[in-house]
Amino acid sequence: MTKQGFTTQNVHADQHFGVEHGGIHKPIHTSVQYGYERVEDLIGVFQGSIKGGFNYARQGTPTTAALEAKITQMEQALGSISFATGMAAITAMFLTLLKAGDHLISSQFVFGNTNSLIGTLRDLGIEVTMVDATRTDAVAAAIQPNSRMVFVETIANPATQVPDLGGIGALCKSRGLVYVVDNTITSPWIFLPKTVGASLVINSLTKTIAGHGAALGGAITDTGLFDWSTYPNIFANYRQGDPKGWGLQQVRKKGLRDMGGTLSSEQAHAISLGAETLALRAAQTSKTALELARFLESHSAVQRVFYPMLESHPQHLFAKQHFSAGSWLLAFEVGNEAACLKFINRLKLPVVATGLGDTRSLIIPVAPTIFWEMGAAARAAMGISDGLIRFSVGLEDTADLLADFEQALRS
Ligand SMILES: *Cc1c(COP(=O)(O)O)cnc(C)c1O
């Protein structure tokens, strides 16, 4: 059989475990305990000789495992671990793979809460250098003897900077660094981090993958490209079996089991349902976003528009070559803060709310809300002006959103 398309594989991925009682959607398993007829089987699950067994739901259930299989299949990867939120996934990844005295290189264009978490890593004795990741030479210049990991986001929120994903991948490979790519804004339908050499992929399932704004979740995916036998921070306990699996093994035990940021089966089910329409939603919202971006760019009342599929975007060539679409994330400036607030209040369709990747369009002034806590200097370093507006494109008809923008800019 020829290779099936993205959505064909996606909607069937959770049935590879077998169908229970003929139910064609994976059931919501709420049991905390999992029992076995033979005590040897329980021992086998504990010791790992029986693969894929369950014992206590903090470490996963058949419902979360089915979602993990779906994400692994979409990322064309080795394996995934789900968490209660995207931040729980990122926290577990950093705290289980880095130690005091290690050095982390991070893009300076990262999600606000990730930026705040990186401050906590510093307090714990992990050295961090924040760099302009649109330039691989800036990443290379930051490498130290104790560097372990490079962290970037595919399309930064809100100002849409795209790192030199391929150049950084080649650099990490040659220097033996773990390369972590947060794929939240793009999702595996728009971009596969594995194709640029990512070791680990982060997805906040809350955003593009669930897509309905009705569930929180996160995931860490191992692409299988990193040789964990070379990584000094893998505990002796987890240096067992194929070294390709050592990183995830450690994150599942130390990060999920011990830290306990477990995704519930109810939320995993809601995310799975959303994930099945990923390709359809990502195509539609990207199409609308590009039309809005072009309209805004041509309007005299708009100063700047940030969208990777615009020719004016600094990383447009890379985005065009590597991304199947531009995503639902759009940012623009319509003057100072007062003008920006007035414009937002004149719009009728978008909901004034934080959050990203909902069925409904969401709009927010960036500086006085989500990037308020970090202060003016940090905002300036991230390219965030006082009048910047972030727009998360929903599933409304393109023409209706265009008409709404048109009337709001006219008055
Ligand atoms: C939202 C977001 C996160 C955190 O995800 P939650 O599910 O809200 O915890 C991480 N990275 C990026 C790029 C995000 O947009």
Structure in a nutshell:
The protein is built from 16 helices and twelve strands. With 411 residues, the chain is of the alpha/beta class. Helix 4 runs parallel beside helix 5 and helix 12 packs parallel to helix 16.
Task: List its salient traits.
single chain, alpha/beta, Aspartate Aminotransferase, domain 1, five-stranded mixed sheet, Aspartate Aminotransferase, domain 2, binds pyridoxal-5'-phosphate, 411 residues, 12 strands, seven-stranded mixed sheet
Describe the protein in words.
The chain has 411 residues and is α/β, with parallel strands linked by helices. It folds into 2 domains: 6-30 and 61-275, Aspartate Aminotransferase, domain 2 (3-Layer(aba) Sandwich); 279-410, Aspartate Aminotransferase, domain 1, CATH 3.90.1150.10. The protein has 16 helices and 12 strands. The protein has helices at 6-12, 39-47, 62-74, 86-97, 112-123, 136-142, 165-175, 187-190, 205-209, 246-257, 265-275, 278-297, 316-322, 337-346, 376-381, 398-410, and strands at residues 79-83, 103-107, 127-131, 147-153, 178-182, 200-204, 218-222, 304-306, 329-333, 351-352, 362-365, 388-392. Strands 1-7-6-5-4-2-3 form a 7-stranded mixed β-sheet, with helices on both faces. Helix 3 runs parallel beside helix 11 (265-275) and helix 4 (86-97) packs parallel to helix 5. The N and C termini lie far apart (57 Å).
